[in-house]
Amino acid sequence: MCDTLGVLHGSYALFGKNSDRSPNEAQVTELYPAQIYDGGEVACTYRLIPQARETLSVLLSRPVWMWGAEIGVNEAGVAIGNEAVFTKGKYGQPSLTGMDLLRLALERAESAERAVNVIIELLETYGQGGNCGFDHTFYYDNAFLVMDKNKLFVLETCRKSWVVKSYPRASISNRLSIHADGERYGGGVCDFAKTHSDPLYSYFSGSKQRKSASGCALPTANAEEDIMRALRSHDERVKNPFAEGSVSSCCMHYGGMVGDHSTASMVIRLDDGAPTVFLTGTSTPCVSLYKPYRFGNPTRGPVVKPDDESAARYWREGERFRRALIGKAVPAEFYAERDALEKSWMAAVSQAAASMDELLIRALIEEAAFYGKYDPKNFEDVPVKKAFAKNWAKKNEALILRKEDTNH
């Protein structure tokens, strides 16, 4: 479960995504350098494929046990988010996952249009498939929002069939959305969504409500904070997301019979310079802070070099605060201070008041002070249903028992 949105503004573009996965699955943000290879193969999550001669530098938000990534941007200013989509028939055997395809496209493409073609070429050659669940079995096909400063594409797939359409702004969720109005088809022109959608799984994913919410935010999404607001939004029927689960909220909260949890979130500004990234590095974006990072700067905080375990520790440490919020009412002053901090960081970015690396250092110091100021034990208790409390108790116990996520 996820939500991705993007909008083109001529001289710049904005991208955002929430990665909704198992509440206990740590997600890490890693900066990979550009590389030159002399042949050989690359080991993706489930299979080997020939390595490219050259790969671009990429910033990836990656579930710790996967090779591929949920969210990413490369040095050329291409950003991609993928979504699980539920389709008719039997899913493919283990091959390339949607996350693998996302990473491979970012490593190999200097434009959004080329990235779409890379995904299509790999999909038609190798197919897609494999269990993508962390602590449960989860199979699905994939949709992608692929963009750079100038172009935005939605690519939707069913096995090796696909459809592409370009937009000035778009959002995608866990459902096929392109009908007979696609611009390019692989596997025959058709009403793609009607032909391939599994209506039952698509319905219970809550994706209709989430796609509507993110889509409504796009016409007025002129700045990073507008994308953040959309990614933090909750279904209006949810009175307190820390007292009830909801798959229909862009900021997804676990706790119900079905559904995942927003385990990472990223907002990216694409312009003529290096991409400017605002990332949580933690789960639950409504109570997280989006820290500023300029692509290619030194790694620190939640942004790490490949295979640095400190990112997973940063994520898991953040869970202490977030799990303590279950059954609590978060006070209004918490959200007000959250917004004020982020506003000050965004102002510093736009005014060039400090180098981006210095700004990230400042943000990490202020983040630590912010969370140190608020103790959930002092927040008001709210009633929760027994099933909700029981579901979270099981997840909490499993998170404590799991010593190393990378051993999964």
How does this structure look, described?
- With 408 residues, the chain is of the alpha+beta class.
- The protein has a single domain (2-381), classed as Penicillin V Acylase, Chain A.
- The protein has ten helices and 21 strands.
- It has helices at 98-108, 112-126, 192-196, 199-204, 207-217, 224-231, 310-324, 332-351, 356-373, 386-401, and strands at 2-8, 13-21, 27-32, 35-36, 41-43, 48-50, 54-55, 58-63, 71-74, 79-85, 141-147, 152-158, 161-166, 169-172, 184-186, 261-270, 276-279, 291-294, 303-304, 328-329, 380-381.
- The strands form five sheets. A nine-stranded mixed beta sheet has the order 15-13-12-11-10-9-8-3-19.
- The radius of gyration is 20 Å and the shape is globular.
- 48% of the residues are buried.
In summary, what is this structure?
The protein has 408 residues and is of the alpha+beta class.
Spell out the key features of this protein.
single chain; 408 residues; alpha+beta; Penicillin V Acylase, Chain A; 10 helices; 21 strands; 25% strand
Total count of helical runs of at least 4 residues = 10
Tell me the count of domains.
1
Strand arrangement in the largest pleated sheet: 15-13-12-11-10-9-8-3-19
Q: How much strand?
A: 15-25%
Helix amount, in percent? 25-40%
Mean pLDDT: 94
CATH fold topology: Penicillin V Acylase, Chain A
Largest sheet: 9 strands, mixed
Sheet/helix structural class: alpha+beta
The CATH class name reads: Alpha Beta
The CATH superfamily is: Penicillin V Acylase, Chain A
Q: Total number of β-strand segments?
A: 21
